[in-house]
Structures are given as structure tokens and as C-alpha cells.
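User: Some background: our group keeps a shared notebook of sequences we're curious about, and every so often someone picks one and asks for a predicted structure to add to the entry. Today it's my turn. The entry only has the sequence so far, pasted here. Could you supply the structure so I can complete it?
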Amino acid sequence: MITARTARRYALWSLFAITLSAASIFLWMRLQTVGSRGPALQFVSPSLSNGWVPFGGDWKSQGKTILNDSEDRGPKMMNGSLKWKNYFIEADIKLLGPYGDAGLIIRSSGEERGVDSYHGYFAGIRNMDNSFIFGRADFGWDQYIVKRIFPGVRGWYHIKLLAYGCSLAASVTNETGLIVRSYVNDPHCIHEGRFGLKSYDTSAEWRNVRIGPSTLNQLQKLTRGMTPAVVNSNLNEVDS
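Assistant: Of course. Here's the predicted structure to add to the notebook entry:
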């Protein structure tokens, strides 16, 4: 015979089980959403066995750095999910050759060997003219911005590239703390894709590669005091 006390105990256990089940379902759904919208905050291992996929170049893992030991035109090293949407990537980058550029890719897909052979956004440093470059590749190069870096490109630079909706922001900071920023709105933006490293005509090193989900607050913090430039894709200019 079930007493009133036992019935109450069963009711409480049933309520607890239902609550726990609902919480588990919510957490699973939340993780699925975060997984599709952007990666968890993390430093990315420089080990080349950690999901990295090369497209040209001579890539090596050296301690805490990733090295492309080649001067090929446009080699890439890709990682992550093609479904990631709102996220950022940042890293320290150093050019090792006298001419060329290197940087970071975000929201990329369709990668192949060759110059600008992918769909995605790129921000990097170039020592031929001591500049910060930012733009979009669609098997051609649409340059959004070129800004001079003073006193010149040498040593390590910290680059951050952030995508949130159709707004994209990038910054480069030298070892003394001097920062250069860019902020654009692309009405016909690429909505999702993985991240990567890219160089052109120079060997280069990357360290402290970090990715994470982006928010409106992060975008506003990175672009404080700036008005976004509205860009229109004009993919006739090939990087040379």
C-alpha cells in the first residue's frame, strides 16, 4: 500500500527527473547553437595534427609557433567548421622575408591552392609598403582597406579579425602598442566558414592563435569611435 508520504516522495523525484531532463535538453540545444554560430573560446594547438589542413606551402610546428617555410604565392592552412558564423580569430604574426604579406582568414570555404583561391575574409601585414591590409577573396581580391604602419613592419604583430553578422572588424597592434583598425559592413557578406592562416611571397610565423564566439559588445569595443565603411564587391583585382 502506497502511503501519502511515499506518494509525495515519488512526486518529488518525478519532478526532479523532469527538471533534470529539461535542463539537459536545453544545454544540448545551447551547445548545438554555439557550435553552429561560432567556436568555444580557446587557444588553437600549433600541432599540425590538430585538424589543420594545408593548401600549398611548407608548414611546420615549432614549439608554440606555426611556420610556413616557403615563399609560395598564397599558401593557406585551414581549420575549424564551415558552419561557424559569428566569431573572431587573433594571433601574433611575424614576416620572415623582405617582401610579402601574411595574416588571418575568417569565414572561409572552397579553398584551393593558389592566390586568393578561396571564399572568405583576410587581414594581414605587408612589408613591401609597410601596410595593414584587409579585404575579401572570392578567387579574386577585393581590397577593403590599406593603411600604413609606422615606423614599418618588423617584429611581431598582433592581428585580430572579427565577424558579427555582416559587420567585420580588424586590428593590428605592434610590440609598442600602436594600433591600426578597420571596420566595414558588407551587404552581401559571407555568412559562415572556417578560419585559417595565409601568407604570400614570404615565409612567416604565427603564435598564440586564439578563436572564440563574437558578440555585438565585442564588435562595438573593437570599433569604438568608428563608422563602418559600406563595401561593394568588385572582384576584378587579382593580388600581385
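Suggested note for the entry: Helices lie at 4-37, 216-222. Confidence is low (pLDDT under 50) at residues 15-34, 235-240.
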